C-alpha cells in the first residue's frame, strides 16, 4: 500500500491555492449513491460539475466507457479537464488515438508521465521490470503520476464498469477515499459509467462515431501497456489478456487508496 | 507485522517492550529507593530508550560492582548553543566524572553519574532543551550531518534537515516526561488516557537501533555508508537537486559469529528533496516490519538487505514511500575528518575547529581543555558543534575576536592549531574500559600511547608526515567505525586485538582482517614490516590504506 502520508509534499501550498470544497460525509456519500443509481450518466456528471467544477477531472485510457463518458460530458456542456496516464509503454495505436480524440472532441487531453523514462527505470530496477515485478512497474509508471495529479483534485471521474471484472463488481457510483492521512484530506471518486454494459458502450461508440482504438478490432479486449496487454477471446472476462502469467488483475490505480467505506449495492 | 517464523522465539527485549509499552519498568521506584544501588536487568533495557546506560567501574570489579550511569544526549548534527554547552559542562563536573565525551555520532556522553543525581542531570538537560530520549534503544538514533560551518548554503540546510528527521522520530509514548521531568508517573484522578501506539514505531519499537546520516560530497565525515539509511546530497552549485539514498550499512559484529558482519550501505537511488521524509518513514517501517526480532545480533536493517537484496528493498521502498526512485546520480567522496584550526564561514565570520583527542573533554596538567572551552564559550557565546570524528567546532566567531580567543586558549595550554601529527588528528578510539560494559579490551586509555609508538615507527621510515587513519575499539561492535580505517584495531580479549587493514580516505571501502589476536605489545612489530614495504613499494602519493588494499591484502573479491 502506497503511503498516503505526505503524498502531496511535491506541491506545497497547492491546498492553500485551492481551498478544498466542503467535504462529503460518509452518510452523504451513501445517500448520493442510492440517488445516482437511478440517474443518467450526464446527470451525475452535472452534479460533479456543480459541486467541484474544474477540481473534478476525467481520467481515461480511451477504452469504450471512457470514450462514451467524454462524449456525454461534452454534449452536456461540462468542460471537465481530461487526463490520461502515458506510461511510455503504450501502443502506437493508443497514442494516435489520443490525437484523434482531441481532434474529434475539440479539447486537449493532458498526458501524465512517470518520473522515470523506461531507460532510467531499467537502469535502477533492471530491464523489462514488467516481466519480473509488474506491480512495481505499475506503481512507478501509473500509480505515482496519478497520485501526484490527485493532489490537485477533489474529484476523480473514471469509466469503471461493474461488469468488467470481479474486482469491479461492487464499486459505488460515488466513492470516498482517504487521500492524505496526515491532513485528513479525502478524494471523491466518481464512476458514472458503473451500470453500463459492454454492449451498451459499444453501441454508443458506433452511434456517435467516436474514434476508438483499432486494436479492439484485432482481438484485444483490454488495452493498457504494450508489454502487459495481450489478445484474448471474450470467454475469460473483459479484462482478459492483461498481465498474462501473473496473478494480477488491477494495475493499482484503483486500489492504492484506502476506501473510507464500503457500499452494498 | 513480524515476518519471522512463527516457531522462532522472540528475543527477551521484545517481551519487555510488549509488556511495558511506555518503557517505564520500575525506573521511578528505583530512583526514589535509597536502598537500591542499581536498576534491575529489565530496567537496564528500558533505560537505554531514555538515553541512559547502567555501567559499573570495571577497574573496581574485584571489590564488587560499583554502579554508575552513562547519559547520552541526542544532538542532531552535533549542534549546541553556547548556553546548552555550558549546561553540559556544568553537569559533567557537578554529577559526572568531570569529563565530557564527544561521541562518534556527535553526541555528548556523561560518565560516572550516580543514581541519585540521574534525574537532576536529565532534568537540567531538558530545561536547556537538550533531550536524551532515543539516544540509545531500539529507535532512530541521533541523526548525523556534517557540522562544518556554512561555506555554502547547503550545509545549513542539511543540518536543519537532520534536526527535522531526528525530532520527527522521537518516540511519542515513552514515559520520559513522567519519569524525569515531573518526577513521578502521571496519576490523574480520571481513567488513564488511552495508550496510542507510536505512529512510526508501533507498539514494540524497532527490532534494533537505526542510524541515519546526511553527507555532502566530497566530504564523508559522517561515514555515510556505515548508516542504516544515508542521504548523499546531490547539488548543482548552491542548488539542492536531491539525494542519493543509501541503505543497509552497519558495522557491529560478534567475534566468532559468521552470521554477523560489517556491511557498507548499498546505493539505492536518487530522490528529490521533497521525498526525503517519505523515504525515511518507509525505510524505518521496513526495518520495523522485516527486522529479525528473534536475534538481536541479526536484527539490523543491513541483514534484511543482505538477505533479500537491494532490488527487493527498492521495490518495497517505492511501494511504501510512494516515491519513484531514479538512478543514483554520480558522486565522489575523497575525504573525511574535520576542518581544524581557523576557517572562514560564508557570512564572513570565522569558525575554529579544535582537536579533542578521542573526544574526551577534560583538564589535565598543562592542558586544561575543558576549562578553556568553557572560558571561550562563556566569553564569546559561540555556537558549538560536535563532529563525527569527536572534535569540537566553535562557530559564528567575529574576526576581531581571534587574537583574544587564541590567547584565552593558550593560557590553558591549548593551541588553536594542534601540534599533533596528521595521523593522530585523523584517528579515534571508543571509550571502552573502565566504563563500557561491552569492552573486551582497552581502547581510549591506551590509544594515545599507541599512537605515540606508531608515530615513532613512521618516523623511523621517514613517513612522519603521512596521514594514516587509525581507529580502535575495545570490542567488535564498531563504535569508532574501525572497519573503514586504514588501520582498524578491534579488541578481542584483554590486551589482544585484531588488525584490519585497507580502508580509504573517502570511507567508501571496508578494510579486511590482516591478523587475529595480536598482543598489544606486538602491534608495532606487525606494523614495522608493513611500513617498510609501504615506503619501498608505494605508488607516488599512495596512502597506506590503498597500498595495503593493493599489495598487502589478497586480491579483493578473492578468498
What do you see in this structure?
The complex is a heterodimer of chains A (265) and B (559). Chain A is of the alpha/beta class and 265 residues long. Chain A has one domain (24-213): 3-Layer(aba) Sandwich (Rossmann fold). Chain A is built from 9 helices and 6 strands, in the order αααβαβαβαααβββα. In chain A, helix 5 (92-105) links the parallel strand 2 and strand 3. In chain A, helix 4 packs across helix 9 (198-208). The longest helix of chain A is centred in the middle third of the chain and has 17 residues, at 134-150. The model of chain A is unreliable at 11-17 (pLDDT under 50). Helix content of chain B is 30%, strand content 18%. Chain B contains 16 helices and 22 strands. In chain B, the strands form 5 sheets. In chain B, strands 1-2-5-4-13 form a 5-stranded antiparallel β-sheet. In chain B, strands 3-16-17-12-11 form a 5-stranded antiparallel β-sheet. The longest helix of chain B has 16 residues, at 153-168. Chain A binds chain B through residues 1-7, 9-10, 12, 114-116, 120, 123-126, 133, 135-136, 139-140, 143-144, 147, and chain B through 269, 272, 274-275, 277-278, 281-282, 311, 314-315, 318-328.
Average pLDDT reading of chain B: 94
CATH topology grouping of chain A? Rossmann fold
Shape of chain A: globular
| Helicity range of chain B | 25-40%
- Proportion in β-strands of chain A: 5-15%
Structural class from helices and strands of chain A?
alpha/beta
Main sheet record of chain B: 5 strands, antiparallel
Number of helices of chain B: 16
Radius of gyration of chain A: 18 Å
Tell me the count of domains of chain A: 1
Q: Total strand count of chain A, please?
A: 6
Mean pLDDT of chain A: 88
Amino acid at each position: 500500500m502506497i503511503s498516503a502520508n505526505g503524498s502531496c509534499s511535491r506541491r506545497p501550498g497547492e491546498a492553500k491555492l485551492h481551498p478544498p470544497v466542503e467535504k462529503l460525509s460518509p452518510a452523504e456519500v451513501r445517500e448520493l449513491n442510492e440517488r445516482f443509481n437511478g440517474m443518467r450518466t450526464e446527470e451525475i456528471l452535472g452534479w460533479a460539475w456543480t459541486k467541484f467544477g474544474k477540481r473534478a477531472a476525467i481520467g481515461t485510457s480511451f477504452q469504450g466507457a471512457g470514450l462514451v463518458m467524454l462524449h456525454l460530458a461534452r454534449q452536456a456542456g461540462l468542460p471537465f479537464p481530461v487526463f490520461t496516464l502515458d506510461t511510455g509503454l503504450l501502443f502506437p495505436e493508443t497514442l494516435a488515438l489520443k490525437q484523434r480524440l482531441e481532434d474529434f472532441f475539440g479539447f486537449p487531453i493532458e498526458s501524465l508521465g512517470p518520473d522515470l523514462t523506461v531507460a532510467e527505470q531499467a537502469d535502477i530496477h533492471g530491464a523489462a521490470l514488467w516481466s519480473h515485478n509488474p506491480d512495481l512497474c505499475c506503481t512507478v509508471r501509473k500509480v505515482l503520476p496519478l497520485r501526484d495529479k490527485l493532489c490537485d483534485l477533489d474529484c476523480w471521474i473514471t469509466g469503471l464498469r461493474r461488469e468488467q471484472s470481479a474486482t469491479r463488481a461492487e464499486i459505488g457510483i460515488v466513492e470516498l477515499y482517504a487521500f492524505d492521512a496526515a491532513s485528513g484530506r479525502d478524494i471523491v471518486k466518481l464512476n458514472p459509467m458503473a451500470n453500463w454494459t459492454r454492449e451498451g458502450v459499444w453501441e454508443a461508440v458506433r452511434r456517435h462515431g467516436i474514434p476508438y482504438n483499432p486494436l479492439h478490432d484485432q482481438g484485444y479486449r483490454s488495452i493498457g501497456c504494450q508489454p502487459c496487454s495481450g489478445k484474448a477471446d471474450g470467454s475469460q472476462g473483459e479484462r482478459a489478456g492483461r498481465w498474462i502469467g501473473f496473478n494480477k488483475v488491477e494495475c493499482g490505480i484503483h486500489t492504492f487508496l484506502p476506501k473510507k467505506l464500503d457500499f452494498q449495492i | 507485522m513480524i515476518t519471522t517464523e512463527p516457531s522462532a522465539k522472540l528475543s527477551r527485549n521484545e517481551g519487555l517492550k510488549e509488556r511495558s509499552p511506555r518503557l517505564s519498568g520500575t525506573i521511578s521506584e528505583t530512583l526514589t529507593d535509597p536502598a537500591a544501588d542499581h536498576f534491575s536487568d529489565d530496567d537496564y533495557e528500558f533505560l537505554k530508550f531514555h538515553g541512559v546506560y547502567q555501567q559499573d567501574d570495571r577497574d573496581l570489579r574485584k571489590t564488587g560492582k560499583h554502579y554508575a550511569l552513562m547519559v547520552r544526549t541526542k544532538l542532531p548534527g552535533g549542534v549546541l548553543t553556547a548556553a546548552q554547552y555550558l549546561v553540559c559542562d556544568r553537569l559533567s563536573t557537578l554529577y559526572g566524572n568531570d569529563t565530557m565525551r564527544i561521541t562518534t555520532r556527535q553526541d555528548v556522553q556523561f560518565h560516572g553519574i550516580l543514581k541519585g543525581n540521574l534525574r537532576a542531570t536529565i532534568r537540567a538537560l531538558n530545561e536547556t532543551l537538550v533531550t536524551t530520549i532515543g539516544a540509545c534503544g531500539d529507535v532512530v538514533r541521533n541523526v548525523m550531518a556534517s557540522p562544518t560551518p556554512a561555506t555554502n548554503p547547503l550545509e545549513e540546510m542539511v543540518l536543519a534537515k537532520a534536526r527535522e528527521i531526528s525530532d520527527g522520530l522521537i518516540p511519542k509514548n515513552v514515559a520520559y516526561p513522567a519519569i524525569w521531568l515531573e518526577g513521578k508517573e502521571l496519576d490523574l484522578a480520571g481513567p488513564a488516557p488511552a495508550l496510542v501506539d507510536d505512529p512510526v514505531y508501533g507498539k514494540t519499537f524497532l527490532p534494533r537501533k537505526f542510524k541515519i546520516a546526511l553527507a555532502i560530497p566530497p566530504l564523508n565525515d559522517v561515514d555515510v555508508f556505515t548508516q542504516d539509511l544515508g542521504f548523499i546530497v546531490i547539488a548543482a552549485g548552491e542548488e539542492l537537486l536531491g539525494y542519493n539514498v543509501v541503505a543497509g550499512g552497519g558495522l557491529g559484529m560478534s567475534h566468532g559469529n559468521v552470521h554477523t558482519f560489517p556491511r557498507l550501505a548499498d546505493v539505492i537511488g536518487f530522490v528529490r528533496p521533497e521525498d526525503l521524509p517519505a523515504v525515511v518513514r518507509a525505510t524505518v517501517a521496513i526495518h520495523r516490519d522485516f527486522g529479525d526480532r528473534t536475534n538481536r545480533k541479526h536484527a539490523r536493517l543491513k541483514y534484511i538487505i543482505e538477505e533479500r537484496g537491494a532490488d527487493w528493498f527498492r521495490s518495497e521502498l517505492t511501494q511504501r514511500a510512494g516515491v519513484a526512485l531514479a538512478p543514483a546520480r554520480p558522486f565522489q567522496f575523497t575525504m573525511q575528518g574535520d576542518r581544524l584550526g581557523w576557517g572562514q564561514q560564508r557570512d564572513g565570520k570565522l569558525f575554529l575547529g579544535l582537536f579533542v583527542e578521542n573526544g574526551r573533554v577534560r583538564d589535565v596538567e598543562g592542558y586544561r581543555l575543558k576549562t578553556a572551552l568553557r572560558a571561550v564559550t562563556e566569553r564569546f557565546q559561540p555556537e558549538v558543534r560536535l563532529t563525527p570524528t569527536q572534535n569540537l567546532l566553535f562557530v559564528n566567531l567575529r574576526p576581531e575576536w581571534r587574537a583574544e580567543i587564541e590567547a584565552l586558549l593558550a593560557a590553558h595550554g591549548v593551541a588553536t592549531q594542534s601540534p599533533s601529527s596528521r595521523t593522530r588528528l585523523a584517528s579515534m578510539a571508543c571509550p571502552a574500559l573502565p566504563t563500557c560494559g561491552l569492552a573486551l579490551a582497552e581502547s581510549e586509555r591506551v590509544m594515545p600511547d599507541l599512537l605515540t609508538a606508531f608515530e615513532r615507527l613512521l618516523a623511523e621510515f621517514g613517513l612522519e608526515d603521512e596521514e594514516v587513519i587509525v581507529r580502535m575499539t575495545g570490542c567488535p561492535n564498531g563504535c569508532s567505525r574501525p572497519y573503514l580505517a586504514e588501520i582498524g584495531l578491534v579488541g578481542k580479549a584483554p590486551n589482544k586485538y585484531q588488525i584490519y587493514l585497507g580502508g580509504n580516505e573517502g570511507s567508501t571501502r571496508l578494510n579486511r582482517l590482516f591478523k587475529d589476536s595480536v598482543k598489544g605489545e606486538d602491534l608495532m612489530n606487525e606494523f614495522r614490516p608493513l611500513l617498510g614495504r609501504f615506503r619501498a613499494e608505494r605508488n607516488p602519493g599512495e596512502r597506506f590504506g590503498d597500498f595495503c588494499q593493493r599489495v598487502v591484502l589478497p586480491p579483493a573479491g578473492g578468498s
